[in-house]
Design goal:
Number of strands: 0
Structural class: mainly alpha
Number of domains: 1
Order of helices and strands: HHHHHHHHHHHHHHH
Largest sheet: none
Distance between the termini: 36 Å
Radius of gyration: 21 Å
Length: about 425
């Protein structure tokens, strides 16, 4: 997951260093809308993967194949529909955020190029989940690494060698993802995998299960992007493109940390779901413990890096004068505090989702990505830029407290039950 998402970070780095601050701000205005489209396919992938893993654990292979087939077709249709909306309404979205002039133009171009390819590129996230369910973990990792190299290579050619504009940054990434998507699909098309395409039956029931189980992941991803859109609007109002760029740097760092956390639990969700379906709660507890330790280490490590090297990290993305660098250093050190506690809520949320407790997971998703950030924005916007930098860490702290309460009151007893062979 870190490999597959790191190209977004490096893409923004290339845009900032090679095209300029305004293009960097435009890309960060458009990126939340692009990621919402990807989040829809990811929701279907996560929601179906949980059901597939549990069905395989129960030895119901035909039902697992039915969920798989339904999910792939649904992901294509939903992504195509949302892409059409983004292409049509993109300029209106950016105008409402306060963008105008060349900033508006570049944001629209960047968004539309991505949207044109999304019905295909979104399937990368879908088939990545299914490769891991089928035990092809190494192939999944290698394809994600290949995708990162392809995207970076094409963007380097377009932006550095040919000196082209922001549209070609989006094109390079889209072409790299498209090639990887086709390679991911080939093992399933050829056959011989644990999951096979089959006739669709009980469509309504299957879709209900997929969307119910995937909803927490979708809400977490989309709510976070909606929050980013609102945050960018406030930053644009109080600090202009400079403030948006500083927040954009932080969100690009977040684009490494969150996928890292997501990757740990997402890669182990099939194992958790399988053992939960098989009644092996002893194994579930061990897998979950190791996962929590891993994401806690990852978060705390990145938090320390942001506190110790804020100016160096910001300077990787943008050339800046001393005034902008001072503001960026201050802001990144504040927002970096988020990761000292972010792992707590994410661990509880992901585990709840893996064992089919979508209600608890949905609550935590909404609290972290939408409810608490919005509350903090309303309270802190009166302090202008200084208050807005504290929105993310305070929202993370409140969500962590909520997660502890949910675990103690809802999940602890359920997980502590011993397996009776």
């Amino acid at each position: 997951m870190m490999a597959s998402n790191i190209y977004f970070v490096l893409e923004m780095l290339l845009i900032g260093r090679l095209i300029g601050e305004e293009a960097f701000a435009a890309g960060n205005l458009a990126l939340p809308l692009i990621l919402i489209n990807f989040a829809l396919a990811d929701m279907i992938a996560v929601g179906s993967s949980i059901g597939i893993a549990i069905k395989l654990g129960e030895r119901k292979e035909e039902e697992a194949d039915r969920i798989f087939t339904t999910a792939v077709i649904t992901a294509v249709l939903c992504s195509a529909f949302l892409s059409l909306i983004l292409i049509t309404l993109g300029p209106i979205f950016f105008s409402l955020m306060g963008a105008e002039g060349n900033l508006l133009k570049e944001a629209v171009i960047y968004l539309r190029v991505y949207a044109l390819f999304t019905p295909l590129t979104s399937l990368v996230f879908v088939f990545d989940n299914y490769l891991r369910i089928c035990g092809r973990v190494r192939l999944s990792m290698n394809l994600n690494i290949l995708m990162s190299f392809l995207c970076l290579f094409l963007e380097f050619i377009f932006l550095y060698v040919l000196d082209l504009g922001i549209a070609f940054a989006a094109l390079g990434t889209s072409l790299g993802m498209s090639i990887t998507c086709i390679l991911s699909m080939l093992p399933f098309i050829k056959g011989g995998m644990a999951l096979k395409f089959t006739k669709i039956r009980n469509l309504k029931e299957t879709l209900k299960s997929i969307f119910t189980q995937g909803l927490p992941s979708f809400l977490n991803n989309t709510s976070g992007k909606i929050t980013s859109i609102l945050m960018n609007s406030l930053l644009l109002h109080y600090g202009g493109a400079v403030a948006v760029s500083i927040y954009g740097v932080f969100m690009n760092i977040d684009g490494i940390i969150i996928p890292g956390m997501y990757g740990v639990f997402d890669s182990l969700q099939p194992a958790i779901g399988y053992n939960w379906g098989a009644g092996r709660k002893d194994r579930v507890r061990k897998i979950t413990l190791y996962s929590v330790i891993a994401i806690a280490f990852l978060c705390i490590l990145f938090a320390l890096l942001l506190e110790i090297f804020p100016s160096e990290i910001f300077s990787l993305f943008l050339k800046s004068d001393s005034t902008m660098l001072m503001l960026a250093t201050h802001a990144i050190m504040i927002m970096g505090l988020t990761y000292f506690v972010r792992w707590i809520s994410y661990a509880c949320q992901s585990f709840s989702s893996a064992i089919g407790k979508s209600g608890e997971s949905t609550v935590l998703s909404l609290c972290n990505a939408l409810i608490f950030p919005l509350i903090m924005m309303l309270i802190l916007k009166s302090f202008r830029l200084e208050g807005l930098w504290y929105v993310t860490p305070l929202a993370a702290l409140l969500t962590a407290i909520t997660a502890v309460i949910i675990y103690i009151t809802r999940l602890h007893k359920l997980v502590a039950e011993k397996h009776n062979p």
